[in-house]
Amino acid sequence: MSRLSRRRFLVNASTVAGAATLDGRLGFSQPVALENNDLKLWYSQPAARWVDALPVGNGRLGAMIHGGGAKLVLDPKTAQGDDPLEMDPAKETIVLNEDTLWSGLPVDGNYPNAKDALPDIRKAVLEQQDYHLADKLCSKLQGLFAEAFQVVGSLHVDCDHPGTIAGYRRELDLASAIASVRYQAGDVTFQRTLFASTPDQAIVLRVTASKPGALSTTIWMDGALVRSVEAVGSNRLLLTGKAARHITGAGHPASDTPILHSDKPGEGMYYAAIIHATTEGGQLAADGNKLVVKGATSLTILVSAATGYNGFQQIPDTPQSDVNDRAKKYLDVAAKLSYTALRQRHLADYKRLFDRVSLTLGKPSTKPTDERLANFATSPDPALLALYFQYGRYLLISSSRPGGQPANLQGIWNYQVQ
Known about the structure:
Structural class: alpha+beta
Number of strands: 20
Strand content: 25-35%
Number of helices: 7
Shape: globular
Helix content: 10-25%
Distance between the termini: 27 Å
């Protein structure tokens, strides 16, 4: 798939937008009736890399939906995630984040004797003209790296059904903040629907089969910082982990030891994620550290998470057991509601923000979003500009809400430890 950088897209977008004001043929002057794809990002294949997955978030919790799972399972503690993977559409991989999960603890990262190195640096540059030496000496001016936003882990849902998969579609509907995957396997249509609810502080995944009893799946979790995953009863999994004590940025003087772990409470916060599964029909049972569904018609999974964050000036030394209880408290509240109620409450909350603004530019396209983006420089697509604008609004609504943390440079989504 050909790719277009954000910088190049913005340049092209400005060019097309400017041209549109001069050329009435692009149709800006006439209102256009909205069609289904006007506010949807959609693709005809799973995301082979994290950067191509679709984001959902409720301001506190974030999730990236790949619309498939890797055919070859990798160790999350060593996998980089940058190379494209061969994906199985019958599986689902959802990478999870929580807005307070950062490495480190409050410290003074300044180097108090930094000024003492300045004369030697000046001498290396001005007298010796040894810039490599000067660069090395500059490390004495630098304090600690400012820590890193962390990843909770991944939720995997591996469906098992016979037949060739056809009619695949993966999409994110900006109008509803709901992501979905749909395809056919044999004579059965399968659909996965996911959203992040702010009112109920949970990520909600629903998997359905058009034929009763046709849904069988295995549910499991993993992650680079995960310390344990265990079943709680017959329908829950509890994931626990601990953030690094310190993470050094790439190119930093101490990058020979980029990730420093510690077992001491407060030197890196504890965190937990809990999932709660229910089915319509069939059987649901724990099998070791996994949940197994057999012969169901639908499956609903609720996900919540919590950390030991105590405030930016406080040591994050909340015990693991208390963190687990925080995550469980969120989940217990959401689990009292039906899927229909969770969805309705999510829509009412989200649409009061998103529906404040509408923008229609030109005629909507029926092509997948990646094709529109790849052809943007040569095929003017004003409707893509409107989609891009609304996508930015969607990301900010999804990555930061009142009472939570401000959006970071990646919003609320991240798959890396360093």
